[in-house]
Design brief:
Distance between the termini: 146 Å
Strand content: 5-15%
InterPro entries: PGBD
Protein name: PiggyBac transposable element-derived protein domain-containing protein
Pfam family, one: DDE_Tnp_1_7
Radius of gyration: 41 Å
Organism: Solea senegalensis
Biased composition (Basic and acidic residues): 114-123
């Protein structure tokens, strides 16, 4: 029989999983199949009785060569066995005959021949993600996701019939919170300086009412609100300037000496009670079907250990706040960023998740199954999508190219899409049919990923052409239309807050945080007020603008402050060793230069002493030009004597 090289017949590739080790008897059978016309003597009684088999299988030793007097057939048998040790590839017949043995010894994840041609398919359940070892692949096919119907109710958690602006504001800022602020401010002032500020709940309302009014009429400097030329009576007559600055510098919402146990983990413990009260007001609002998640900056440029820098933001420096908002701008939940470790401690099963996935899991704790979440490329990853699918929440957002590299291989390049023109769209679907990646070319390629939207149905939109200097009609996929319509909730809230922000110049980050969340409460309450009035059919002219709404809330806060004369005198009494500032008397040349002095009768409960030297009477006349108080006694006119020198 002609000799056939073993590598030619059996193949040159080494089989997987350690197959190819055979005994003499098995090699005999294979050679019998080759040489059907010759009778081959059986050299072994069986594998179980062959001593070389155990040595071959257990330690992988080389098969011993037969003696020199063996015939050529025995030589070829020995060579065939030696070649089979390294080059044998089991045939289909071997697998079929050895199924019972392979099922016992082979691990469960190893597949039979022909089963690895396709990746593992996952169950089509709504919460099931890819199995361990899933080989991701993408294909061009129609996207038909299985979406759970939205299970949230349309009813309001709080009945808001016939509410006034102050009632909407009470959802976020109430008297109990103001009492906490007043008590902590008094306690800390007493501990630090030995004297209490003697503030009250009404004065705290008064302080925030003045701050809101100041944001409606911005001046370059806060002191201008009390100046003679630019004073605003609603502010200057309500609270004295020094009292306002003193309250603002001593404002506290916790007692610093009562350090909480989680101080090391919670960096914002100094303002946590205020933040939690505003957060409670956000959480009682009804959850809609479509929400958006984005970053929000709390502007602050002073010294702060957890200050962030986010480029391309209107206020790039400050504290970062992750916000969940509805499509009409109402904030539903938020989480101030203080590190990924602190965020991971609040999220169950956080191991292996990135920052974007952690934020999504934290902010979607209160949403209903079937909710559609829209976010930007900072949050969109494959792992984040899988986490949301486990909760039956469907994610849509822009995505970076390096996060969907396998999908990018199936999509046309930027050069090809640019040649095809604006409006060109291409999409691929993951093998399990749960993810879709869409690439749309506008001015440049836009990559989007979704578990609920795809390319169809397309529509058209107007885009400006720099080259042709006019608007042109461009085809737009469905995923882009839905994203643009429902992603702007957080941006709308930011824009409303930026119109009349309480921008106080302070070096304390705690004051900046308190003012920010007061602005957030005002913006949220006005958006609720406007939506309720629109749903009730109120005419547009009957709905207050945001500026009018803020002024109305400020007026309500100011009316809650009823300070008696005795309390006001005690609050503004000079401290021991401190003297009132004395107004200097104008020079005689000023007093007698002209007759343009404007007197007014001063209606004072406690008349001041006459400023004319030698007079002991009480003043009743105020000269506006000289800013002095003079008296009119019988037989002597101090006002005339003062101006005649």
């Amino acid at each position: 029989m002609a000799a056939i090289p073993s590598k030619t017949f059996y193949g040159s590739s080494r089989p997987k999983y350690g197959h190819g080790k055979i005994s003499f008897s098995r090699a005999e059978e294979l050679l019998n199949a080759i040489a059907n016309d010759s009778d081959i003597e059986e050299l072994s009684d069986g594998e179980e009785n062959d001593p070389l088999v155990g040595e071959f299988v257990s330690c992988g030793a080389t098969v011993e060569q037969p003696p020199d007097d063996s015939d050529s057939l025995s030589d070829s048998l020995s060579n065939a066995a030696e070649d089979a040790d390294s080059d044998y590839l089991p045939s289909d017949a071997d697998h079929i005959s050895e199924d019972s043995d392979s099922d016992m010894n082979e691990p469960q994840h190893k597949k039979k021949h022909g089963e690895n041609d396709k990746p593992d398919q996952v169950e089509q359940g709504h919460g099931a993600g890819p199995k361990k070892g899933f080989r991701e692949y993408w294909k061009s096919a129609p996207f038909n996701p299985i979406v759970v119907p939205f299970q949230g109710g349309d009813e309001q958690l709080v009945e808001r019939a016939d509410w006034w602006p102050a009632d909407y504001m009470e959802q976020y800022i109430d008297a109990e919170l103001m009492k906490v602020v007043a008590d902590c401010t008094n306690s800390m002032s007493l501990a630090n300086s030995g004297r209490s500020l003697n503030t009250s709940v009404e004065e705290m309302y008064h302080f925030f009412g003045v701050s809101i009014l100041m944001s409606c009429v911005p001046y370059p400097q806060t002191r201008m609100f009390w100046s003679n030329a630019l004073r605003i009576p609603a502010i200057s007559d309500s609270m004295r300037r020094d009292r306002f600055f003193k309250l603002r510098s001593h404002l506290k919402v916790v007692i610093d000496n009562d350090v909480p146990e989680d101080r090391k983990t919670d960096k914002f413990w100094k303002v946590r009670p205020f933040m939690n009260r505003v957060l409670d007001g956000c959480c009682i609002q009804a959850r809609p079907e479509s929400v958006s998640i984005d970053e929000q900056m709390i502007p602050f440029t002073g010294a702060c250990p957890f200050r962030q820098y986010v480029p391309l933001k209107p206020n790039p420096v400050g504290m970062k706040n992750f916000v969940l908002a509805s499509t009409d701008g109402i904030v539903l939940d938020f989480e101030v960023y203080q590190g990924s470790k602190a965020l991971a401690s609040q999220v169950p099963d956080a191991e292996g998740l990135g920052l974007g996935a952690l934020v999504l899991r934290r902010l979607t704790e209160t949403v209903h199954p079937g909710t559609k979440v829209y976010c930007d490329r900072f949050f969109t990853t494959i792992s984040a999508v899988e986490c949301m699918l486990e909760k039956q929440v469907y994610l849509t957002g822009t995505v970076m190219k390096n996060r969907v590299t396998k999908a990018m291989q199936k999509l046309p390049s930027e050069k090809i899409m640019k040649q095809q023109g604006r409006g060109t769209t291409a999409s691929v679907v993951r093998g399990d049919g749960k993810l879709c990646v869409v690439k749309w070319f506008d001015n440049k390629p836009v990559m989007m990923l979704s578990t609920v939207h795809a390319e169809q149905p397309e529509d058209t939109c107007q885009r400006w052409s720099k080259k042709e200097k006019h608007y042109m009609t461009v085809r737009r996929p469905s995923i882009v239309r839905e994203y643009n319509a429902k992603m702007g909730g957080v941006d709308l809230s930011d824009r409303m807050m930026s119109y009349y922000r309480m921008s106080v110049r302070t070096k304390k980050w705690t004051i900046r945080m308190l003012m920010h969340f007061m602005d957030l409460a005002l913006a949220n309450s006005w958006l609720l007020y406007r939506r309720d009035n629109q749903e009730n059919g109120t005419p547009r002219k009957g709905i207050m603008k945001f500026l009018e709404y803020r002024m109305d809330v400020a007026q309500v806060f100011l009316n809650k402050c009823k300070v008696t004369d005795a309390e006001e005198e005690r609050a503004h009494r000079p401290e021991p060793g401190q003297r009132f500032r004395v107004t200097p008397i104008p020079n005689i040349s000023v007093r007698t230069a002209s007759a343009g002095h404007l007197p007014e009768v001063a209606n004072l409960k406690n008349p001041m002493r006459c400023r004319l030297q030698g007079c002991t009477g009480k003043s009743r006349v105020h000269c506006l030009t000289c800013n002095v108080f003079l008296c009119l006694q019988s037989g002597r006119n101090c006002y005339e004597a003062f101006h005649t020198g």
